[in-house]
């Protein structure tokens, strides 16, 4: 299980999307009934859309992390640090959310950077 971080994030995104589809089912049906285009009429429907879309973006992040891992075992540090910052902000704003689930892969990615840096230092 050398490159698990991308799969972990993909699994979190799948859970996030499934949760959205269950919790916001009536809201999504209403959006469809209203013709989708310009159909956001309440704060709850806007939250439902953003909740769903964030799950999709998280899925894309997971795919990118898997791709980088398959190429050279190192995800760019800028991606890892931005994911860490996003996770800290998410946990701070919404401590009862699933943002906590992103700490294990992001910490692992940062540890991989440190390991890679230590291996490339010429003595």
Describe the model.
Helix 2 (25-33) packs across helix 3 (43-72). The protein is mainly α. It has helices spanning 5-23, 25-33, 43-72, 77-93, 103-120. It has one domain. It is elongated, with a radius of gyration of 18 Å. The protein contains five helices and no strands.
β-strand amount: under 5%
Distance between the termini: 31 Å
Shape: elongated
- How many domains make up the coordinates? 1
Average of per-residue pLDDT values:
89
Radius of gyration: 18 Å
How many beta-strand elements? 0
H-E order: HHHHH
Flag low-confidence runs.
Answer: none
Helix count equals: 5
> Strand pairing plus helix content: what structural class?
mainly alpha
> What level of helicity do the residues show?
over 70%
Main sheet overview:
none
Secondary structure elements and their pairing?
Elements: H1 5-23, H2 25-33, H3 43-72, H4 77-93, H5 103-120
Helix pairs in contact: 1-3, 1-5, 2-3, 4-5
In a few lines, what is going on in this structure?
With 123 residues, this protein is an all-alpha fold.
Please give a handful of descriptors for the protein shown:
5 helices; single chain; mainly alpha; 123 residues
């Amino acid at each position: 299980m050398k490159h698990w971080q991308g799969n972990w994030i993909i699994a979190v995104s799948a859970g996030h999307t499934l949760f959205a589809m269950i919790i916001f089912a009536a809201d999504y049906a209403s959006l469809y009934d209203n013709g989708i285009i310009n159909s956001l009429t309440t704060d709850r429907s806007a939250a439902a859309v953003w909740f769903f879309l964030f799950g999709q973006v998280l899925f894309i992040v997971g795919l990118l992390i898997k791709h980088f891992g398959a190429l050279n075992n190192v995800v760019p540090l800028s991606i890892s640090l931005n994911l860490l910052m996003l996770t800290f902000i998410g946990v701070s704003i919404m401590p009862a959310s699933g943002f906590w689930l992103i700490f294990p892969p992001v910490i692992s990615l940062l540890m991989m950077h440190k390991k890679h840096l230590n291996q490339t230092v010429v003595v």
